[in-house]
Write a structure and sequence with these properties.
It is built from 3 helices and 122 strands. By secondary structure, it is mainly β.
Length: about 1500
């Protein structure tokens, strides 16, 4: 049992306690030291340490007491009361260490005190047996400022909570048995310190009046009957964690700000904390016992909740949350098992943010539909669907599709493993929901082998406006661990319901997928998604099984758990109404009423949609009513069920199975892949079973079929006229029905082609194709039947109506220009050919170049495709259909594909004008494929004009032909103009007409120099408007012209989710100085590149979403943009040198804000080593989220009012400097060994030597420490040095991540590393806990040297609360002598606040220079003067601080130097200051004057140096020599 805590924190009179006996005697505790002096100067040590145990397995003694009372405290010594360590020589796992003691210091003035206080516990073999930290109390008796400090030396308390202060180990306690209150102005907790109160006096209060500070790793524990008041009128920052236990109380400021690893855990009552801001992995937890002061538990009320940068806010149990505004973003999360969240204004769940109840529902084997157990396997929990199972053991469906409020159920127990928990319940009411992240209630995955996944829970959203691109989700948990093939089941999807007045600005997804398993047969079933806005009377139902095939084609027992089916199970509901039912991803939907008592249930919808892979199952006494004629899902009508359809229906490719009653249908088309299955139990119109009467016609097309479900039971009566068309699957015996007429044709490919007939109504029958030569062809109507076609040679076709059936074609494929012919003809050389060009460049071959002869009109395409180097291009088709164009087949003018290594032909032209367009077919003007190393033909041109209604859902395509990646061609153009009311229309200018240009290479991304030019000659005008330009995958297009300036306006640039890019300006226009002006009116936008002669005007807020990198690149002029937002998953934003914003000079960018979300990047390119003309990025605010970066290339100045760099974010100029063997201090390499031996690049210090250092030597240092603007030099081989980054902030610069200009490290096994660059910071306030530096690149090999450190200068004119790391070390090498020299770090603060007392030379500022190589090299020297870069000859510093094994030198051969140094320190006392040296020893003098009496580093005074010091000095250093003159 550990020794208990004791002692008064304010007034110390007790000694430390002895350690316990083990196999030998325990150790002694520390004694008591009390000092009372008017003046106390401490450079040595005052201590009362506990003794380290000497007896075997004995415990360490605890620290004693140190009490100091003085008026003036000065010096740089130490006050210590540490615990003694345990003896671990024997029985090593048992002994415990002594706790720290107590220190109290009272003073009137400690401005000259630079020493340290320490009261830490002793060490043991395991952390759980370390001693707890002691306390350090300081009080300024003039100001009465009281501060308590606890530092646990990074010893983490074994338990996260305190159960018994008498026995819990490693914590720190305020333990005056008589105390009933403690009051401090500041409490500072460091390195995992854990502070609590232990008192025998009963209830106790603990007040912190001003500041709870620290490094965010410490914690305060407020136990039962205790009360904590934190910063009621002081800082809102909680820089340590706070735990309010059950029965305790906490009072906080109105705004609570948490960062780092701070936790706020409330299990008792609390007051304040009305607004909560958490960032950087901070966490807030409200337990089920938490309550606002004076209120019952269960309801929490807030003003604003802001969670960002991976912070979390969690509720332990069901809770009601009331808030005005909530913001969750950047991997932050708000979670609860069951939450009713009412937001008065806006709920914003932004990029990578989450509001969730994932895995917070019913536990394993629990809930309404728990997974059952089969042998050693656990089945999936059910909810919106049945869980995955073996046999009928799945968790069953339950809950409401309209109003989901039930938790998901747990999975079944597996092979001695626990099933996954279900998802919880999210119920949100808010006027506005902005969703770019996630709202979810996912079930949990199995927790071991063969266990079942939990089912998804419930998500219910009620809002006026839902906007964004995020996801709403309630997926089932997985069961993917199955070592012995015993097989668990996936959890079912849950239920999602969204009620909104406006959904038009939401483009996200809502899903409730079943969880996966090791076998498809055990996947969980899909849940349900219900969406209703003001445009819908009854709402929309979506069922999506994520493409997983249901193991059983039919349902046998829904209540016992048929796996993977989805059921509507609203209690008491017997009539379901939906405006649309959408069945996707092979989902199976059915209805179940509970209790299942045979009550009839109906489902009615005017639209049954889907992807034709799903199915609807109508069980006994169930009815589906829909007027949808084109069934987009299969329908299975079981015995005693009913299906009511319109008179005409089309099956393509779905199944219709009738074992019950089918009503109203008279005519039917059964197209390819579709099946009509008739059962002896079924009938039409409720007539006698086995009888099916269709008064009209059934057309069975190629690949369609009619099947008797009971082949062994003949006697079905099918009364219909059945047309079995080309390729129909074998039909039932002719005795079952009449076929008239019947025609079966083998193939049309070998049939002779004749000219099309000149008749009023043209019908092109199967196997009877015809051709249309150049000229006009006019008809009343045209029908192209399945397996037939019209071949067109530059013909203009005019008709009132045009119908192309499935398998029919109008084609001009290969009817263009011959091989090697045309404006864009592909070349042939040595049996290798490039692709033909038309709308885009043709692909190169391995020998021949890109084909660039682009031509033709985007709007009125009438040009043939050019021949490739080996293949013909596509021809020309023009169709005018004054009525309906119904295309279920193909209209194409493709280029021919090549053979051998030749190039494909370019696509031709298709120009369509029609009143209405429907169908599922395709329009295609793609290029031909390149063969082998031959190039692909480019796409051609497609233009479609629709004047009336349209519901065409087929494909428009004009891509390049396929080819190997290096030989791909560019896409063609597709232009569509139609009324704004049609499906797929975009009307940005609100003129009633949609004009969309699409460039889509369908994933065939070509080389960067192969693209689709959009020239004035193609556009027909230099001033144009598009409602949208859509870029598909690989769709690279460029507005550019060498002949004239252009003005283009685009409503929307849509390339989200693709890697297409639109370029504005470029090589063509740049040659003549023509300007291309493009205005894009809406954001977000796809990938955009602005060339040198491009000028782009964009909306005020630019939202970048394209995954292409760079996704936004500007060489030219950018207008209109005030705010830049880079969404998660977007590619890099790059601002190039000589580019600009609209009114600025070259390389100057002016914005209001820049927000880089998680895992996004932005770079700004300056000028290479042109320090007089850096690039300038000026903005009001910059936020760089976790894993995001803002990078400077070469020399860049960043100016802002506020810059915030999150914990893993980065503002940097890393690798932005000189390349290998370049720069003023380039590394060298041994040419005999090529790249195997190289020296590191130099900058502030020398580059590291190679193992052949005597031959190669070291590169020399350069640059200014005060105004660093020079690049790091490259090493002997390998990566670049750091660039030059200057940051000017008029408000606060907060760096929790990194702000660096590091040199590149080793690449491969033979390179040498580069030097760090320059970082120059000028800011009003500096805050954060991150890293600021300019280090050299590291080496891992033993042959080459590391790069030197760079230069860092930091000027702070206001408040500096930065507690992070500064680093400018040399690059490490595994051989110490090959480490790069240290860089320099210069700091200047105005002499105000805490820096007023550090202005020793009384010049109004505190000047500090740090040089720290962090022990990497003993003997590496960093010069502190360089005459070539902004030289100073007089140095007047308040402090020079040298790191471990760091040597610096003042010397110059050209000028006398004067150094005035107030303080020389070296925290580890291993640095050395060298004055004078070999270079200047005969001509120049280095003079140093210092008033310091104590020096903590070695001093070497060479022959040309003169040093003036006080009469008595103390040199305390571990270096040898300590003083050499």
């Amino acid at each position: 049992t550990s020794g208990r805590c004791y002692g008064n924190v304010y007034w110390l009179v007790l000694p430390g306690s002895g350690g316990g006996f083990g196999q030998g005697a325990g150790s002694l505790g520390g004694g008591v030291v009390r000092i009372n002096a008017t003046l106390f100067v401490l450079h040595g040590r005052v201590s009362s340490n506990g003794a380290t145990a000497t007896g075997s397995a004995a415990g360490g003694g605890s620290g004693g007491s140190v009490l100091i009372q003085t008026q003036l405290l000065s010096g740089a010594g130490r006050v210590v009361s540490n615990g003694g360590s345990a003896n671990v020589a024997y029985y090593s796992s048992y002994p415990g260490a002594g706790a720290g003691g107590r220190i109290a210091v009272y003073f009137e003035d400690d401005s000259q005190w630079k020493g340290t206080y320490q009261s830490i516990g002793g060490t043991a073999l395991t952390l759980s047996r370390y001693g707890g930290a002691g306390t350090v109390f300081t009080k300024n008796t003039l100001t009465s400022y009281r501060k308590l400090t606890v530092d646990s030396n990074s010893v983490v308390v074994p338990a996260s909570s305190i159960t018994n202060p008498l026995t819990d180990v490693s914590g720190t306690y305020l333990a005056d048995d008589t105390a009933t209150s403690y009051v401090f102005d500041e409490v500072a907790l460091y390195r995992s310190a854990q502070l609590a109160i232990y008192t025998a006096a009963g209830p106790c209060s603990f007040t912190i009046t001003t500041l709870l500070s620290g490094d965010t790793t410490g914690s305060i524990h407020v136990l039962s009957t205790q009360a904590l008041t934190v910063n009621p009128t002081g800082s809102p920052n909680l820089l340590s964690s706070v735990y309010i236990y059950s029965g305790a109380a906490g009072t906080f400021p109105p705004l609570v700000y948490l960062s780092g690893t701070s936790f706020l855990t409330i299990k008792g009552q609390y007051a304040g904390a009305y607004d909560i801001y958490a960032q950087g992995r901070a966490a807030v937890l409200f337990a089920n016992t938490a309550s606002p002061a004076g209120m019952a538990a269960g309801t929490l009320s807030f003003g604003t909740i802001t969670l960002t940068q991976q912070s979390t806010m969690a509720m332990e149990n069901a809770v009601n949350i009331l808030a005005n505004n909530i913001l969750v973003q950047d991997k932050a999360a708000l979670s609860s098992p069951r939450v009713n969240l009412v937001v008065n204004d806006t709920l914003s769940v932004l990029h990578y943010g989450a509001v969730h109840a994932d895995r917070l529902g019913a536990l394993a084997m629990a809930g309404t539909g728990p997974g059952k157990v089969s042998g050693a396997s656990g089945m999936g929990g059910g909810h919106g669907g049945n869980g995955g199972s073996i046999g009928a053991l799945a968790g069953k469906s339950y809950g409401s599709v309209y109003w989901p409020v039930l938790s998901g159920s747990g999975g079944g127990t597996g092979n001695q493993a626990t099933g996954g928990p279900g998802g919880g319940v999210i119920n949100i009411t808010a006027p506005t929901i902005v969703l770019h992240g996630r709202i979810s209630a996912d079930g949990g995955n199995q927790l071991g082998e063969a266990a079942g996944g939990g089912s998804g829970g419930s998500v219910l959203l009620q809002t006026r406006v839902l906007q964004g691109r995020g996801i709403i989700r309630s997926n089932g948990g997985s069961s993917l661990i199955d070592y012995y093939s015993s097989g668990g089941g996936g959890g079912a999807g849950g239920r999602v319901a969204v009620y909104a007045e406006a959904l038009g600005s939401w483009s996200g997804t809502a899903v409730a997928f079943g969880g996966p398993a090791t076998a498809i047969a055990r996947y969980g079933g899909s849940g349900t998604v219900y969406i209703k806005d003001t445009t819908l009377n009854y709402g929309k139902l979506i069922v999506n099984n994520n493409g997983i095939t249901i193991p059983s084609a039919t349902i046998t027992n829904p209540t016992a758990g048929d796996a993977m089916y989805t059921f509507l199970t609203d209690p008491g509901v017997t009539s379901y109404y939906f405006d649309e039912i959408q069945v996707l991803g092979k989902a199976g939907l059915s209805l179940v009423t509970y209790p299942t008592n045979g009550v009839p249930v109906s489902i009615t919808t005017p639209l049954l949609s889907g992807d034709r892979t799903g199915s609807i199952h109508l069980l006994a006494q169930q009815t589906l009513v829909t007027p949808t004629s084109d069934l987009a899902a299969s329908v299975m009508v079981y015995q005693a069920a009913s299906l009511i359809l319109p008179p005409y229906i089309s099956l393509r490719p779905v199944s219709l199975s009738i074992a019950g009653s089918l009503f109203n249908v008279t005519d039917m088309d059964i197209r390819q892949g579709a099946t009509l299955t008739l059962s002896r139990f079924g009938s039409t119109n409720n007539i006698t079973a086995r009888n099916f009467v269709f008064p009209g016609t059934i057309n069975v097309y190629n690949g369609g079929s009619i099947v008797n479900a009971d082949a062994s039971a003949p006697g079905l009566a099918l009364n219909a006229t059945v047309n079995a068309l080309v390729g129909a699957v074998a039909l039932p015996s002719a005795t079952f029905f009449t076929i008239s007429p019947s025609a079966v044709v083998e193939s049309f490919a070998t049939v002779a082609i004749t000219a099309c007939a000149t008749v009023a109504d043209l019908v092109v029958l199967p196997n009877q194709p015809c051709s249309m030569a150049t000229g006009g062809w006019v008809y009343n109507s045209i029908v192209v039947r399945t397996n037939s076609y019209i071949r067109v040679d530059d013909a203009n076709i005019t008709t009132s109506s045009l119908s192309i059936e499935q398998g029919g074609q109008i084609t001009s494929d290969g009817r263009g220009l011959a091989s090697g012919a045309g404006t864009g003809a592909g070349a042939v050389y040595s049996s290798s050919g490039s692709g033909g060009a038309h709308a885009g460049y043709g692909g190169p071959s391995d020998i021949t170049a890109i084909t660039k002869g682009v031509y033709g009109s985007i709007f009125q395409p009438i040009t043939k495709g050019s021949g490739g180097g080996g293949s013909a291009g596509g021809g020309v088709i023009k169709i005018i259909a004054t009525g309906l164009l119904d295309n279920n087949g193909t209209i194409s003018s493709k280029g021919n594909s090549a053979s051998g290594n030749y190039g494909g032909g370019a696509g031709g032209s298709v120009w369509i004008q029609t009143d209405s367009m429907t169908g599922l077919g395709s329009v295609d003007a793609s290029g031909g494929a390149g063969a082998g190393t031959g190039g692909a033909g480019s796409g051609g041109r497609v233009a479609v004009y629709i004047t009336g209604a349209s519901n065409f859902t087929g494909t428009l395509r004009s891509s390049a032909g396929t080819a190997a990646a290096a030989y791909r061609g560019a896409a063609g153009t597709i232009f569509v103009q139609q009324p704004a009311t049609n499906k797929g229309a975009t009307d940005t200018d609100a003129d009633g007409t949609s004009r969309i240009l699409r460039i889509d290479n369908f994933g065939n991304t070509a080389p960067a120099t192969v693209y689709t030019p959009l020239l004035a000659s193609h556009l027909g005008s230099t001033t144009l408007y598009f409602d949208a330009i859509t870029l598909g995958s690989g769709g690279d297009a460029r507005f550019d012209d060498a002949a004239s300036s252009s003005i283009i306006t685009v409503g929307v640039l849509d390339a989200a989710g693709t890697n297409g890019v639109l370029s504005v300006g470029g090589p063509l226009g740049a040659a003549t100085g023509r300007t291309v002006n493009v205005t894009i009116q809406a954001s977000p936008l796809g990938a955009l590149s602005v060339g040198a002669n491009g000028r782009v005007s964009l909306p005020p807020t630019l939202v970048v979403v394209s995954p292409r990198s760079p996704s936004f690149e500007v060489y030219g002029t950018l207008c209109g943009v005030q705010n830049i937002v880079s969404q998660n998953g977007a590619g890099t934003i790059t601002l190039r040198s000589n580019g600009r914003t609209c009114t600025e000079s070259a390389s100057t960018w002016l914005f209001q804000s820049i927000y880089l979300h998680t895992a996004t990047a932005m770079s700004v390119e300056g000028y290479f080593e042109n320090t007089a003309a850096s690039a300038f990025l000026n903005t009001t605010s910059i936020y760089i989220a976790d894993d995001a970066s803002l990078s400077a290339i070469y020399s860049v100045v960043v100016g802002a009012d506020v810059i915030d760099v999150a914990f893993t974010g980065s503002l940097n100029a890393d690798l932005g400097g000189h390349l290998e063997r370049a720069g003023p201090g380039p590394g060298r390499r041994d040419m005999y060994y090529s790249t195997a031996y190289g020296t590191g690049g130099a900058h502030a210090g020398q580059g590291g030597a190679s193992s052949e250092g005597a031959t190669l030597g070291n590169s020399m240092a350069y640059g200014s420490m005060y105004r660093p603007i020079t690049f790091g030099s490259g090493g002997g081989s390998g990566p670049a040095g750091g660039g030059a980054l200057r940051v000017v902030v008029t408000g606060t610069l907060c760096v929790n991540g990194s702000l660096t200009s590091n040199g590149g490290g080793q690449i491969g096994s033979t390179s040498a590393s580069a030097a760090g660059g320059s970082v120059w910071i000028e800011t009003l306030n500096l805050a954060g806990t991150g890293l600021i530096g300019a280090s050299g690149g590291d080496m891992t090999s033993t042959t080459s040297g590391g790069g030197s450190g760079g230069r860092v200068a930091v000027y702070v004119s206001g408040v500096d609360t930065y507690t992070g790391t500064y680093r400018a070390r040399g690059g490490r090498c595994s051989v110490a002598g090959q480490t790069g020299g240290a860089g320099t770090m210069y700091f200047e603060h105005l002499a105000v606040g805490p820096y007023a007392s550090l202005d020793y030379n009384n010049n109004g500022k505190h000047e500090l220079v740090i040089v720290d190589n962090e022990g990497g090299c003993n003997g590496c020297i960093t010069p502190l003067f360089n005459a070539t870069s902004a030289p100073r000859y007089t140095f007047d510093w308040d402090e020079l601080r040298l790191g471990s094994q760091t040597d610096v030198e003042f010397d110059d051969a050209t000028s006398n130097l004067a150094v005035n140094l107030a303080t020389l320190t070296s925290p580890l006392q291993t640095g050395t200051l060298r004055l004078g040296g070999a270079r200047g020893q005969t001509t120049r003098t280095v003079t140093m004057t210092s008033t310091a009496t104590s020096f903590y580093a070695g001093i070497v005074v060479n022959v040309n140096a003169l040093v003036t010091l006080p009469s008595t000095i103390s040199v305390q250093t571990a270096r040898d020599p300590a003083l050499q003159i």
